[in-house]
Amino acid sequence: MEFSGETPNPPLVPRRWGDLSKRVVSALVLAAIAIATAREGGNLFVFVWLMAGFAIHWEWQRLIGGGSGDLRLAVGGLVLFLAAILTQRFELNWALFALIAGAGLVAALARRGTRVWAGAGLFYAGLLVIAVIALRGSFPFGARSIIWLFATVWATDCFAYFGGRLIGGPKLWPRLSPSKTWSGTIAGVVLGGLTGTLVSIRDLPEPHRILPILALSFAAAALSQAGDAFESGVKRHFGVKDSSNLIPGHGGFMDRLDGFIAAAIFAFAVGVIRNGPSVAGGLFYWA
Questions:
Q1: What are the pLDDT digits (tens) for 262-277?
Q2: Model-level pTM?
């Protein structure tokens, strides 16, 4: 299989609320799966997010096009599987090493001019897989960390969506994302950060302090908006509207998870750098 670099969906301009019903139904189904598996944890959680990583890798490689498509997908899939297994065993250094080496190999398989993009796509998908598995596996705060991310990112998306449409006003960055407004972005970050804070501190044992958790929630909300802008920039660079048509009303998994990926990688990095009682514990323990 060779990728053409084109997607079949034309850049349609929907009515103001024309896509809302599809977006709501798709979001509810995905949210139900995400929450159920986050609470369950274990192999089911790993499997679901590994599948998400596979989908993102496929969408990214399809987006950039180029030769050796099947081989790039196969190599990337094996690397993602290996990284997931190593992360589940908390061999994080080896998981990251495997991801970096795999991204280099995928880049080498791509045609000239797309090699950096090809490797970056696998690295992007792999960091998501490593981040969420490491966070969820952090006893006893794994489930809490994932639910906090869900609450923060989903609230940010919702408030940004409705804030932008109800308030309107100047565009945030017309060249990159024509539909985004300052009003929607600010509403999303502020209310998303507050939502994440309220969810994360409920029944949280000592020692913890609310101000660091509030700052983390605001940072995660802001980065989720930045992640959305980043993915919009990637799609604009390659001249497509959606990464795929896998999710009705949302496009593809890249489109649906762009903000979550940025927030999850941020949370993972903070947890590792702080070196708390666990990766997730590094987010919530502030003595």
A1: 999 999 999 999 877 7
A2: 0.87
Q: Do residues 109 and 197 share a domain?
A: no
Q: Per the structure, how many domains does the chain have?
A: 2
Task: Report residues of the chain scoring pLDDT below 50.
Answer: 1-2, 4-17
Q: Are 151 and 235 in a shared domain?
A: yes
Give the separation between CA 214 and CA 229, rounded to whole angstroms: 23
Q: Please report whether residue 13 resides in a domain.
A: no
Q: Residue 104 to residues 28, 114, 120, 187, 271: CA-CA distances in angstroms?
A: 37, 12, 9, 39, 26
Q: How many helices (H) and strands (E) does the chain have?
A: 10, 2
Greatest Cα pair distance in the chain: 55
Any domain includes 22:
no
CA-closest candidate to residue 214, choices 200, 234, 232: 200
Look at residue 89 and give its three-state secondary structure: coil
* Structure tokens given for 114: 């797309």
In the chain, the DSSP E strands lie at 171-173, 177-181
Percentage of the chain with pLDDT > 70? 89
Verify that 167 and 106 share a domain, yes or no.
no
DSSP for 75-116?
A: HHHHHHHHHHHHHHTT-HHHHHHHHHHHHHHHHHHSPTTSHH
CA distance 68 to 251: 25
Domain hosting 239: range is: 139-287
94 and 158 both lie in a single domain: no
